[in-house]
Records
---
Amino acid sequence: MKTSNLRRSKEQLPLPRIAVAHESQVPMFQPTRRPVTLSRYVRETPYGTVTITGKLGQGHRDLLDAMLLHSEKVNIRDGRMNALVDPYQIRKAISAGRTMLPYAHIEKLLEDLRTAKVEMTWQDGNRHYRLQEGIITGFVEASSKPVASGTFAQRDANGCDQDHRDMLKITFGQGMTQMLMEDQKIHYPLAPVVGMKHGLSQAIARYCLSHKAVHETFEGICARVGFDLDGKAPRTVRNAKEELRDDAAALATMGIEVRACGSVHRKAGRSKP
């Protein structure tokens, strides 16, 4: 990372609209909404190598995308990106029009992002990169912002609305900061991806949206997003295909075609901001 960027601690720096390429091209996040805790899961891909220790799934990725999308203030200190976010806006974004998720759920996802260890190496042109830390290193309540009555302000001990809402300050790890600042930025609408029914579909959508074109068999696209079919029972494979077909209409709105055989195709260019 350029050292000049690290020293501009008081300067607000641009964030990706939603994500960066290697978040989707290397399976950092399990392709499910019900991830399990992994012990040194290693995955080698054409885009880089990743080793995951911890629990990271598509719900965690939803939260990460939402934090980047809704950051209200960003700065760099000691090589780490700090983002100030409104927890209500994050909660609203990852609930995708469904019943609002409790704040306790968001805190659990944040804790998983903090404790999971991600070791990743990749190359971009002649430059080599390495991530060897948690995705975030901490999250704390920060300065509050004024809000109008009836706009989901915080409530006091008596259950009455207050005139402010506390913000969250998210601190990213140094490797993740470097990735977010220097990697290829990816632009796509968050709500349709978060609103999908299945985590496998979400992971496939994110992979496809990080490429100009995709033409993969069902087995091939599953391997790309870290869902190995080798050794899986036939029923498990059938269920996975059904999940993908179940979200086919939502994928089609993003230019991603799911054919009857389960193959996945994207001919359009990257989504625009």
---
Amino acid sequence: MTPESVKEIAQLATNATAASVLTEGDVKMLVFPTGEGKVEVRSLKPEIDAFRTAPDRRRGTAKASTLDSFVDLVNRHKDEGSAIFGSIDTAQPKFIAVVDYHAIDHSPRFGQHRIEYVFPISDEWAAWRGRNGASMDQSAFASFVEDHVAELSAPYDAERGQIEGLFGTKFGLPSELIQLSRGLALNVESTVKEIRVLQSGEAQIQYDEVHKDGAGKPLTVPGLFVISIPLFVGAEPTRLIARLRYRRDNGIKWSFHLWRWAEAVRQSLISDLDRAAKDTGLPTFEAMPEA
């Protein structure tokens, strides 16, 4: 409250005999004497709001179900001060558009009209991320590969040239991973006789029993494989490279380790944030807005 307003209220307390309306900026207050040189100040906003035919301003948060809907809603409501904020968090990423964000000339605004899009994790990504680095016995690993066979992908030549040399082992094709999983399932009760590491970095597993991998040969284990999955519902597939590992422990325990997956997720989100900027024409920030 300004000094002028304080002075006016003091004068009203001394001299006023009836209620008066005091205006400060766009705020109207009712000031009326209560006796003994005192006054009571009440806001007129509740009375004014009761007679409105429309809200005094937009407020609330719309929750978009898809990135396309987020962009469409932003385009419907945006103005020259609107801005988009992106939480590039691999655990639970989200975008928030603040329609009535503070103006570029530093004029304050309420920031209470917002549009939010929380990225829904795809079932495929939830499954692979949930098993990433987890130890599985032969039966569990074979079942997992069989269940997700459609998400396996052949490596690109560039991936072979860069990654195989880096890890000193070869990529497995989808057909080879399928053959491996079926061989493991058939030999689940068998005892491991020998594991040999080949010059290529692959391994061969020899079981005591007769092999049932379809060719009667030891099972070949590639050191790397590729999956292609949407990280979020409705998103385009992202390629992820996995390292395949095993260890002897009352049989063989298997695990896969997704290589640089956090960076892949981050790049996917940055691409979506760039798309939102392009499709809405608004500034974007890797940040969260003021509460």
